Amino acid sequence: MPDVIAYGGDWNPEQWPEETWEQDVALMREAGVNRVSVGVFSWSLLEPAEGGFDFGWFDRVMDLLADNGIAANLATPTASPPPWFGDAYPEALPVDSAGRRLHHGSRQGFCPSSPIYREKALRVTEQVATRYRDHPALALWHVHNEYGCHNARCYCDTSAAAFRAWLRSHYASLEALNDAWGTAFWSQHYGEWAQVLPPRDTPSFANPGQQLDFRRFSSDALVELYIAERDLLRELAPGVPATTNLMAGAHWDMDCWAFAAELDVVSTDHYLIGARAEPHIDLAFAADYARSLNGGRPWLLMEHSTSAVNWQPRNRAKAPGELRRNSLAHLARGADGIMFFQWRASRAGAEKWHSAMLPHAGVDTKVWREVSALGAELAGLAEVAGSRVKADVAILIDHSSVWAQDHPAQPSSELDPVEEAKRWHAALWRAGITCDLAHPEGDLTGYRLVLVPALYLVSDSGAANLEAFVRAGGVTLVGPYSGIVDEHDRVRLGGYPGAWRDLLGVTVEEFFPLDGPIRLASGGSGSVWSEVARATSAKVLDTYATGEPAWTRNAWGDGTAHYLTTRLGDDALAEVIAAVCAEAEVRPPATSPPGVEVVRRSHPDGRSHLFAINHTAEDAVVTTASGESVTVAAGDARVITG
């Protein structure tokens, strides 16, 4: 990415009369916009009839951007097939688990495994790439848009055949599949590959292994679609980077680790959930995840909102200053681009009530004034571009584990692995500590502390990876119901937590889900979950009133491994995380009052940028590591460069 902060949003000029385009670009320059995404939803106008292309209007759009020094994230328009596609090829439309074929009328109306869809998508991609590969406005290929947001899984016969092919490539034989899925139970043993189907609606629970593998297959199908378009773009326009906008931290239907491995730069979308009490902490989780997906390198925020969205039950508008705080929080956590959906608020269509950089009310508005001020501020922060965030803590997260635990036949439906990971992340946020997210099989060297809030499923290599990290001197804290099953969702026998019994020095005999709080000897409390455990080599640090271990610590090689057998309350969890951070010698980059977010980005030459963002209604004093005191006004943010 260039040595500037990319700033702008989705520009959809096709929604407007051409006479507004010049005005749009003039206002973009006034607001400091230097980058826009174009063409995202333009397939029906670029190819209004099958095989009949019309690029004249889009040529004028691209030329207008180039003439005004505004770069383009040029999208392949394949996320939203036009009406003629569904009319001509109804067999390519998605089918839900009940067997209902869905119809054209929104977006992402296609089966990801459909060869017809892939053919038509690659054809329009080829046309776009051939025409604009040398255009001076082109900066980045924006492939598709939000893969799997609405069609993550299709259950049609085409998908069934593709699923069987995927299974045959992953299992040596049908007997190996039967063993992995445990099909001896409920008389599910398969005698022919043709008998294997997607987990369509059935009278009772679907087979857990079948459901897990179908979610893996479905995610891989989306990745394959991206790779097909990306490889064509690389062939036609070598040297132009490509990305697609993930929804890291919010959309769990596709494996972000697998997707990120194929991107030239990670980009993501993030929207605040109004129902969350502290949505800025959820923002931090998503931003840390995006940075981690890009291997710690800077990433691109492709979309967020200037104010309200249009798809929640109550679409809360942002308070004055919130737009800036949200944007700087993403920048603090590694984004080198701050972009919005969209540039001009739509007059019609399903997203007409989604906020934009240029609101319905025009330029004499709070949003426009904040958008323009942010553009000027980001231009002054160009030096931040390219710097990185160094984290000493990692939280392990794996989509396969989330999918496996999502099966309804669990000991408790209240132990939500994603929410638990976010809760542990929030405890770090409140302590002023920035963390990465990491795959269980990823490189853990360089971290002092690895947290495992809720990793129900872990492979043998993932289990060994954590053991090696601790043996080499690292500290880990493992949450309840972790390490329970292998990669096929088969229980690890011999006592829980099967994968890490030796590492943790604990054996669990039985789970006891709770319907109320449980008191601990320390004075804290747990809820939702408890376990009947005994320490085999671990030291017990806290117990239930009945004496069974609630928190243990075990020496392992040169490091230590802590274990919790209950879902601690927020205060008790904060105390435990503070204790393991102290043991691992993990410290925040500055001292700050509650509600003040402090994150450091650094360059290899030693230059650094300390972001201090005050999410409270009171002025706050932040004390840097060098002892300097900095006042951050209520609702304000400061960037201290040194």
Automatic annotation (TrEMBL):
The keyword Hydrolase applies. It catalyses: Hydrolysis of terminal non-reducing beta-D-galactose residues in beta-D-galactosides. It comes from Nonomuraea deserti. Belongs to the glycosyl hydrolase 42 family. Substrate binds at residues 107, 145, 311. Zn(2+) binds at residues 111, 154, 156. Residues 10-379 form the Glycoside hydrolase family 42 N-terminal domain. GO terms for molecular function: beta-galactosidase activity; metal ion binding. One of its GO terms (biological process) is carbohydrate metabolic process. InterPro entries: Beta_galactosidase_Trimer, Class_I_gatase-like, GH, Glyco_hydro_42, Glyco_hydro_42_N, Glyco_hydro_b. Keywords: Glycosidase, Hydrolase, Metal-binding, Zinc. This is Beta-galactosidase. The active site is at residues 146, 303. GO terms for cellular component: beta-galactosidase complex. Residues 391-586 form the Beta-galactosidase trimerisation domain. CDD domains: A4_beta-galactosidase_middle_domain (cd03143). It comes from the Bacteria. Its EC number is 3.2.1.23. Pfam families: Glyco_hydro_42, Glyco_hydro_42M.
